[in-house]
Design brief:
The chain is mainly α. It has two domains: 62 residues, no CATH class; 193 residues, Serine Threonine Protein Phosphatase 5, Tetratricopeptide repeat (Alpha Horseshoe), CATH 1.25.40. The chain has 14 helices and two strands, in the order ααααααααααααββαα. Helix 7 packs antiparallel against helix 8, helix 11 runs antiparallel to helix 12 and helix 11 packs parallel to helix 13. The longest helix is centred in the middle third of the chain and has 17 residues. The chain is globular and about 55 Å long. The termini are far apart.
């Protein structure tokens, strides 16, 4: 069915392609990678059909780890983030969920909630992970710092300093685009502008040499190389002292429940 869906999409039949992809999602026996193919097809052919995914039999039948992985793919826009949140909420409602799966789901849920402007909920979720073995890792602390910035309007010096300290303890400066982007923001927040510019330049070099879609902490979305470069330009403005703030904060008050 998915082969036919791909053929229909390639021949300019988005309605037929999306219909086949939706039918595939109604099979409780669907393989996880077929579910992923269905999501990609719907995104390309008829993105408006990417809704109520948590109720699709194929996804509802997945185990917790697979659900968390699928949710991590739904990060291209805020509509997809809302779908990811619903999948993760269903996952978290399972009282028998193993600690490792719950920890993974909480991390991904925090990412989606920050992207949706639900900062207080993200903060509570991340804080709940402090009791897990190993406590909060550098990615957790960074997301906590960004959620706190979104909630208060002020970048929390103590949390961003903790991010910088964790990097010193376990340096991964060349490990990836998002990591260097995050470290640029963290070092700016604690007044280390020289180091912030170094991380920013590393991110610029990496996106130039290996262009690919990537998560951006400026939006808490997965973005195209061109969008990522624009986000790096905004971070450069931030480091330069210009009055800019991350895109994920825009309209957060309007999106937050009363």
């Amino acid at each position: 069915m998915l082969e036919r869906a791909e053929l229909r999409h390639g021949s300019g039949d988005p309605e037929g392609a999306s219909a086949d992809a939706l039918r595939a999602l109604e099979s409780s026996d669907a393989h996880i990678f077929d579910i992923e193919r269905s999501i990609r097809l719907l995104r390309a052919a008829r993105p408006s059909e990417l809704r109520e995914l948590s109720k699709k039999k194929a996804i509802a039948s997945c185990n917790a780890g697979d659900k968390a992985w699928l949710a991590s793919l739904l990060t291209w826009n805020r509509g997809e983030l809302a779908e990811a949140r619903a999948i993760l909420k269903d996952t978290m409602a399972d009282a028998s969920l193993a600690d490792d799966d719950r920890r993974s789901a909480l991390f991904q849920l925090a990412f989606t909630e920050i992207g949706l402007g639900e900062f207080e909920s993200a903060i509570r979720g991340i804080r709940s992970c402090e009791s897990y073995p190993g406590g909060l890792g550098i990615a957790d602390v960074f997301n906590l710092a960004m959620a706190t910035w979104g909630a208060t309007g002020l970048p929390p010096h103590d949390l961003f300093e903790r991010v910088a300290d964790l990097h010193v303890s376990h340096p991964r400066a060349l490990s990836g685009l998002n990591y260097n982007e995050c470290l640029a923001v963290a070092h700016w927040a604690v007044g280390r502008t020289g180091e912030a510019l170094q991380f920013l330049q590393r991110a610029r070099t990496l996106i130039a040499t290996k262009p690919a879609r990537v998560e951006s902490c400026w939006r808490f979305l997965t973005v195209s190389p061109a969008e990522f470069r624009r986000d790096l330009d905004s971070i450069a403005d931030l480091i330069d002292g210009k009055p800019v703030r991350p895109t994920f904060m825009e309209g957060a008050a309007a999106r937050s429940p009363a």
